[in-house]
Design a protein that fits this description.
Layout (H helix, E strand, L loop, with lengths): L1 H58 L1 H12 L17
Helix pairs in contact: 1-2
Length: 89
């Protein structure tokens, strides 16, 4: 009876040693897959926002003017550009 219990225990330890590395690798791959799926979702949202901005830049004259004024410093004829410089402490 005791010999049979030791045999079963030995078999259990053998199977644990045999399958544990594969199981841990599987868990690591599942975690990485979940991380990558989250990254894909974030990038899809970012892509949609960039597509919307591109659509505005190509088709919306008001948005085009806003971008030209803010990023390129363009002013209309007769306007005086004023730049505010923050004070240094």
């Amino acid at each position: 009876m005791l010999k049979k219990a030791f045999g079963l225990f030995g078999l259990a330890v053998f199977l644990l040693i045999l399958f544990l590395p594969g199981y841990t690798k599987l868990q690591e791959l599942k975690d990485r897959n979940n991380d990558l799926e989250g990254k894909i979702k974030r990038l899809a949202v970012e892509n949609a926002l960039l597509q919307e901005e591109l659509r505005k830049v190509e088709n919306d004259p008001v948005y085009q003017e806003k971008i030209a004024r803010e990023k390129m410093g363009v002013v209309r004829k007769g306007e005086i550009p004023v730049r505010l410089v923050p004070e240094k402490n």
